[in-house]
Every structure is written in C-alpha cells, then in structure tokens.
Amino acid sequence: MTIYLDIVFLENTLMNYIILYATGFVQKRKMKNVKLIVSSVLGALYAIVSYLNIIPIYSALFMKILLSIIMIYIAFNNENIKQALKNLLLFYLASFVIGGCALALLYLISPQSVYFQNGVLVGTYPMKITLVAGAVGFLIIQYSFSLNKRQMKIKDLLCDLEIAVNNKKVKTKAYIDSGNTLKDPLSKKPVIIVEKTIMEKIINIEELLGGDEKLKIRLIPFKSIGKQNGMLMGIKPQYIKINYNENKIITKNVIIGIYDKKISKNYSALIGLEILEGGKEYENTRNVKQSV
C-alpha cells in the first residue's frame, strides 16, 4: 500500500481543525482561523514525525499530552489554568467523538484500506470520508451540548412547591414560567397551574364540583396554543410555600388552577414571576397535615 505523506498531513490538519473548532464552538468562544490553522498544522506535523518514527520519544503518552496543551494554548490563548483545563477536556472529548466517527465510517466503507502505524491512522481512503466523519462528529457534539444546556436551564428554573388546603398539604416540583401571567378575573390574584393528579392527593375533586362550602371554586379563562377558550377550575389555598435558590416564600395571595392533563415529566406546576417577586410571609402553617 502506497502512503503519501502530503495526504496524511492534509487529512490530519483538517481533522485537527474540526476538533479545535468544535472545542471552541461549544463554549461560544471567539476564534481566529489563523490560530486554529497554526495549531492544526502543528498537530499534523507531529503525526508525520510519529508515523516516520524519526524520534521514537514523540510517540510517548507524555509527548501527546504536551502537544495537546500546546495546541490548545495556540488556538485559544487560555486566560487561566481553569480555562486551560476546561479547553483540554473538551478537546479530548471532541477528539474521541469525531475520531470515533471517522474510524467507524472508515471501517464500514473501506476496512481493508485502513491501518495504524506508530499510533497514526493511515490508508488510501478518500478525503471526503474524513470530511463526512468530521461533520457527523461535529453535529453529534453540537446536539449533545445544546441538549445538556437545555436540561440545565430547566433544572435552574425548578423549585419546590408546597400547597396547603383544608389543613392538608402536598409537595411537588414547579417550573418558574415567565410566560405564566394568568390571573383570577375576580380577585386579580396570580394563578399557579397545578396538575389535577397532584391536587387530588389533598382534595376530592368530585365533592368540589358538588359544591364544597369550605372551598369556593372559580373558573379561570386561559389561552394556549391550539385552545383559545380554555377554562381552569380554581381554588384558593390555605397557603403555598416556595423554596427557590435558598429563598423561601410563603403566601396565601394566590389561586390554584387545576389542570387536567400532564404538564411535564420534570415538574407538575407552573409558577409566574409575579408570585416570586410579591410573596409575603404567612406564619400559620404548623397544624397542616402532610399528604403522601
């Protein structure tokens, strides 16, 4: 098998560039193509030296780690050690993902044309395989990080909600929804939307509909996508307690809107920002029973 060093150099430069770009992209860092190219070329030169085994020490693990650190420094000019370690970790992560995609694709398409020599992957495969593998790996990294950030954002906006009604209480997870500006049309109090299955743990919905004198129900009109004229059944709680970011809000100045469908797998209630900003202390909570 004839191996051309210029092809090996070009392929490694291209792959290094994609990996470095992915490392900066997931962090939303400003990147300069010149620095990325210089760093990529350095990595490709290392691959050539390792492949030819000119200096055996170059294939040692220590040298590979040192090269990674130098490439990261050239590409991103790390502000501090913490940032450098983060860049290095993401660089290795991108390398594993993109390199794994390239290796899998090569073995699927042309396994007989690929082999390792002195730790360097070489062969007679077409350049477009390298490009496709790099693009697939990059998309996997981009999707994974965007999904992770979305989950983190949801987690940051979750809080613990406790609802007390008729000396019974229930706890659940609630999502702080800036879009929830729903108010009771009569009292003008903000509405917390809670799944029906949660509220059934402390109240009997059928008795409520039958006219429970202790709890006066109210109808709350709301709008949602695909349902312009919806109505929620609402009740006034004894109090609600919110624990969010080490802050505790206890108030009775809200209405609970009972929603008969599933809100989310991560939470069972929606709280508007107004409630967090306008919560007042309400001390009479000692003799309230906990609902399982």
Your description of this structure?
This protein has 292 residues and is α+β, with helices and mostly antiparallel strands. It folds into two domains: 5-155; 157-290, Beta Barrel (Cathepsin D, subunit A, domain 1), CATH 2.40.70. The chain is built from eight helices and twelve strands. The strands form two sheets. Strands 3, 4, 5, 6, 7, 8, 9, 10, 11 and 12 form a ten-stranded mixed β-sheet that branches. The chain has a two-stranded antiparallel sheet with strand order 1-2. Strand 1 (114-117) and strand 2 (120-123) form a beta hairpin. Helix 1 packs across helix 2 and helix 2 runs antiparallel to helix 3 (61-76). The chain is elongated and about 90 Å long.
Question: What count of structural domains?
Answer: 2
SSE order: HHHHEEHEEEHHEEEEEEHE
Rg calc: 30 Å
Regions with pLDDT < 50 over 5+ consecutive residues?
Answer: 280-286
Span of the ends, CA to CA: 71 Å
Structural class: alpha+beta
Overall shape: elongated
| Beta-strand content | 15-25%
Largest sheet: 10 strands, mixed
Give the overall pLDDT as a whole number.
Answer: 77
